[in-house]
């Protein structure tokens, strides 16, 4: 077609040129300095991912890492998905996380690291890697150190093994009279006494530390102001003594073996303790303006006859919690327990309470019984302590299922729910038929 007609060939050519413009990588044309500035604003994992694009991007990533003083190994999305993965896939994700931290450490050439944070579900199998991470942070003069090894990033590892902070890493020895003092005796770890001189914040979550390790940090970190210890199973005693200690904020929570703390002649401003009742000595702490003590000691509920409780199944502390409620309800007649399967089945060690005989409890109903070790231990505990118990009702219905939560809507059970309940029902009969005495009526719905 001539003149002002439509030129199909020209249109195709222009469209091809437009596509070339769209495909043009304009970011890569930017100067290295600009790219470094851009990547420095990204989370660590996303910034590192750009290094696979080309050799130039590898070069840019190395420059970013060299200037980075904050190493926050946050993998929240992966962490939240762990509970839904099968064991093999779960292990793969954990090892990928460990490899990621190791690779960043190996590539980091900067002189200092101000903040070093690890947040993932890690157990003692990875102790050698975690030891190296701590040594790396020490050598870089870290100011804020956080090891958050909570199970699935949420649950305490109370019934799973914890990573143990090694005494050797600090150059201290157990049973030594100089165990938390830097003396003239050469330390097997030369950076032990200087590696944490800049440390201001220290957080341990699901890390097994004892009083010796914590007191070492208090005595040898001249600017340490904040200390948090959460879910440390073997922490028993702690002393915060002397005006030379800089600590101002202290939080101790959910440490199952913690028995006593002494705070004397210290500069502490805030102290929080969450857990069971402990022996506490506070003396000459004039700067203390905030004090919180939250424990599981309940007032006596003399008029309570009917009690309904909701528990996380597979919690190693479930018997201790249950015992606390029973002791506080001396005239309780009926107890209903709802068990929520919030984490996967894994082997655990249950904390056993002392005997707490109850003479008025007659009826127990357990909803969500699924044959877990915690389920079985609850029934055993109640049989042993409720001396007048006359009836146990087992309901395998999962309390999070819609047909249980909204009974008025008459929602039908799915095939999967029916199969799961039948399996749980059979397990309950197998486990309890011989455990329940003939004097107690046993009903399995």
TrEMBL record:
Q: Which SUPFAM superfamilies match?
A: F-box domain, L domain-like
Which residue numbers delimit the F-box domain?
A: 24-60
Q: Which Gene3D superfamilies match?
A: 1.20.1280.50, Ribonuclease Inhibitor
Signal peptide residues on this chain, from the entry's feature table: none
What top-level branch of life does the organism fall under? Answer: Eukaryota
PANTHER family per UniProt: FBD DOMAIN-CONTAINING PROTEIN, OS02G0105600 PROTEIN
Can you name this protein?
F-box domain-containing protein
Source organism per UniProt: Malus domestica (Apple)
Lineage, highest ranks first: Eukaryota, Viridiplantae, Streptophyta, Embryophyta, Tracheophyta
């Amino acid at each position: 077609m001539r003149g002002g007609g439509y030129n199909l060939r020209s249109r195709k050519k222009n469209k091809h040129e437009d596509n070339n413009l769209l495909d043009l990588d304009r970011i890569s044309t930017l100067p290295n300095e600009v790219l470094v500035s851009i990547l420095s604003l990204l989370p660590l994992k996303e910034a590192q991912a750009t290094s696979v694009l080309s050799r130039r991007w590898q070069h840019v990533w190395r420059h970013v890492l060299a200037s980075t003083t904050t190493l926050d190994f946050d993998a929240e999305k992966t962490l939240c998905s762990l509970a839904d993965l099968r064991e093999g896939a779960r292990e793969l994700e954990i090892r990928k996380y460990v490899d990621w931290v190791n690779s960043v450490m190996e590539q980091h050439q900067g002189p200092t690291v101000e903040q070093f944070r690890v947040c993932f579900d890690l157990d003692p199998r990875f102790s050698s890697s975690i030891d190296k991470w701590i040594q790396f942070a020490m050598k870089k003069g870290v100011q804020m150190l956080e090891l958050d090894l909570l199970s699935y990033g949420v649950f305490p590892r109370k019934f799973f093994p914890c990573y143990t902070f090694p005494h050797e890493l600090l150059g201290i020895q157990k049973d030594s009279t100089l165990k938390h003092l830097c003396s003239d005796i050469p330390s097997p770890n030369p950076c032990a006494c200087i590696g944490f001189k800049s440390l201001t914040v220290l957080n341990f979550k699901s890390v097994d530390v004892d009083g010796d390790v914590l007191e070492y940090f208090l005595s040898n970190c001249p600017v340490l102001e904040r200390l948090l210890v959460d879910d440390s199973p073997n922490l028993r005693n702690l002393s915060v003594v002397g005006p030379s200690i800089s600590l101002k904020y202290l939080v101790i929570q959910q440490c199952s073996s913690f028995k006593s703390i002494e705070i004397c002649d210290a500069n502490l401003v805030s102290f929080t303790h969450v857990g069971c009742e402990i022996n506490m000595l506070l003396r000459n702490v004039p700067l203390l303006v905030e004090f919180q003590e939250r424990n599981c000691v309940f007032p006596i509920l003399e008029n309570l006859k009917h009690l309904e409780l909701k528990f996380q199944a597979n919690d190693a502390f479930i018997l201790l919690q249950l015992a606390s409620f029973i002791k506080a309800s001396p005239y309780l007649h009926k107890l209903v327990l709802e068990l929520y399967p919030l984490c996967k089945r894994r082997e655990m060690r249950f904390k056993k309470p002392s005997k707490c005989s109850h003479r008025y409890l007659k009826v127990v109903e357990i909803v969500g019984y699924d044959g877990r070790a915690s389920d079985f231990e609850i029934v055993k505990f109640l049989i042993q302590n409720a001396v007048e118990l006359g009836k146990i009702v087992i309901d395998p219905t999962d309390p999070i299922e819609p047909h249980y939560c909204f009974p008025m809507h008459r929602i039908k059970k799915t095939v999967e729910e029916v199969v799961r309940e039948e399996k749980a029902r059979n397990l309950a009969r197998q486990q309890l038929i011989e455990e329940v005495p003939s004097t107690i009526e046993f009903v399995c719905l």
